[in-house]
Write a structure and sequence with these properties.
Elements lengths: L14 H19 L3 E5 L4 H10 L4 E9 L3 H12 L6 E6 L1 H15 L4 H19 L4 E3 L4 H5 L10 H28 L4 E3 L5 H7 L8 E2 L2 E2 L1 H10 L3 H4 L6 H4 L2 H11 L7 H7 L8
Helix pairs in contact: 1-8, 1-9, 4-5, 4-12, 5-7
GO cellular component, one term: cytosol
EC number: 6.3.5.4
Keywords: ATP-binding, Ligase, Nucleotide-binding
């Protein structure tokens, strides 16, 4: 796993030069991680759409998405698959609240955590990896890392350049030391190897030298990644698609709130509900 030890010296490349190099590095990373049959953890956002678009040129690709009724991903994933002309290769698992409640102890055991943030993010990936395994896939790629590298979270919008730089470094460190461990556990528990094209060492080294002014520009988050995706030929509606964070777009977070309430916990006590399940969980 690549790490950022200090603030890298920024390059002075033009936007066009940055796009050219970034395009080559993304294609190179995808080629290195391709497998004859590769599943994609697919949400319909620009990150997973770009991974699917590039991988489709290298190997057999199928898309796996997990969502709850009325969630953002329930409509975003099919729309994006259609734009990529991959509708027939999209596998959607419709999660019910009863299935989430039944599966919670199993998931908590796998990831070794009851943290609400971890659980709500891990759940869709865990189910997607399970479904991919059922379909005979041994490898799954996802767009993990793009938000931390290219400033994809909404909270970044209000930061000045120095604060944004610090937070990107901090969030990348958190992802590489904590979040990826959770995600690898979620996939490997289903005997599926998780591969992450955005977390390629040569790619991350270059991206960390891109000035933050190209990561959020004209109030557009992940600006330089979107422009690169555009230059690579990703359909326009996917290049500029807005996407919520995984825990919200899948609908899992809200479902956990409702499940906790059903079990006697108030809206703000979801974490206490998850903690109450810990006694029955054997951490692995």
């Amino acid at each position: 796993m690549c790490q950022i030890a200090r603030v890298p010296e920024k390059n002075n490349l033009t936007e066009e030069e940055t796009i050219e190099i970034l395009s080559k590095l993304l294609v190179q990373s995808v080629k290195k991680l391709s497998f004859p049959k590769t599943a994609i953890a697919f949400s319909g956002g620009v990150d997973s759409s770009l991974v699917a678009y590039l991988l489709d040129k290298e190997c057999t690709v199928e898309l796996f998405t997990t969502s709850i009724k009325s969630s953002h991903d329930r409509t975003a994933a099919p729309n994006a698959a259609a734009a990529l002309q991959m509708s027939e290769r999209l596998h959607t698992h419709h999660l019910s609240e009863s299935e989430i409640e039944r599966t919670l102890p199993e998931l908590l055991s796998v990831i070794g955590s009851t943290d609400l943030f971890d659980v709500s993010i891990a759940f869709p990936l865990y189910i997607a990896a399970r479904e991919a395994h059922y379909k005979g896939y041994e490898v799954m790629c996802s767009g993990q890392g793009a938000d931390e590298l290219f400033a994809g979270y909404k909270r970044y919008e209000s930061m000045d350049s120095a604060e944004l730089e610090r937070n990107l470094m901090k969030d990348f460190y958190q992802m590489s030391h904590v979040s990826l461990n959770r995600d690898y556990k979620s996939s490997m528990a289903n005997r599926v190897e998780l591969r992450l094209p955005f977390i390629d060492c040569e790619l991350t080294d270059f991206v960390c030298k891109i000035p933050v002014e190209l990561k959020i520009k004209n109030n557009i988050r992940k600006y330089i990644l979107r422009k690169t995706a555009q230059s690579l030929g990703l359909p326009e509606e996917l290049v500029w698609a807005h996407k919520k964070a995984a825990q919200y777009s899948s609908g899992v977070y809200k479902a956990l709130v409702r499940i906790a309430r059903k079990n006697g916990y108030k809206k703000g006590e979801v974490q206490q509900y998850l903690n109450s399940l810990e006694s029955g969980v054997a951490t692995i």
